[in-house]
């Protein structure tokens, strides 16, 4: 579940089950357009940290803490 929020990253209330996760050796590929959904940035919660994924004017992706 991805929630776009302009100024704050709040904890997700989505429930993830162990059987929903890929095996350790499996690599998942997701198109950036699917993640960004037309936006220039999104916030990603990883544990207790919040990261910002930005799509730049130069068509690059930048992930910052």
Nutshell version of this structure?
InterPro entries: Hemin_uptake_protein_HemP. This protein has 65 residues and is mostly beta strands.
Task: Supply database-style keywords.
Complement Module, domain 1, 3-stranded antiparallel sheet, disordered N terminus, 65 residues, mainly beta
Plain-language structure description:
The chain is mainly β and 65 residues long. The protein has a domain at 32-65: Complement Module, domain 1. The chain has one helix spanning 32-36; strands at residues 41-46, 49-55, 61-64. The protein has a three-stranded antiparallel β-sheet with strand order 1-2-3, with no helix packed on it. The protein is globular and about 35 Å long. 0% of the residues are buried. This is Hemin uptake protein HemP.
> CA-to-CA gap between the ends?
19 Å
Q: What fraction of residues sit in β-strands?
A: 25-35%
* Helix run count: 1
Contiguous uncertain segments of 5+ residues? 1-5
Largest beta-sheet characterization: 3 strands, antiparallel
Number of E-type strands: 3
CATH architecture annotation name of the domain at 32-65: Ribbon
Classify the fold: give the CATH topology of the domain at 32-65: Complement Module, domain 1
The backbone outline, from C-alpha atoms, is globular
Strand order of the largest sheet: 1-2-3
Order of helices and strands: HEEE
The radius of gyration is 13 Å
The helix content is under 10%
> What structural category characterises the helix and strand content?
mainly beta
Q: What's the rounded overall pLDDT mean?
A: 81
* Name of the top-level CATH class of the domain at 32-65: Mainly Beta
Q: For this structure, what is the CATH homologous superfamily of the domain at 32-65? A: Complement Module, domain 1
């Amino acid at each position: 579940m991805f929630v776009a929020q302009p100024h704050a990253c709040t904890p997700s209330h989505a429930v993830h089950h162990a059987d929903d996760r890929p095996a350790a050796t499996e690599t998942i590929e997701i198109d950036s357009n699917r993640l960004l959904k037309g936006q220039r940035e999104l916030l990603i919660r990883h544990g207790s940290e919040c990261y910002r994924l930005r799509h730049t004017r130069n068509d690059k992706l930048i992930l910052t803490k």
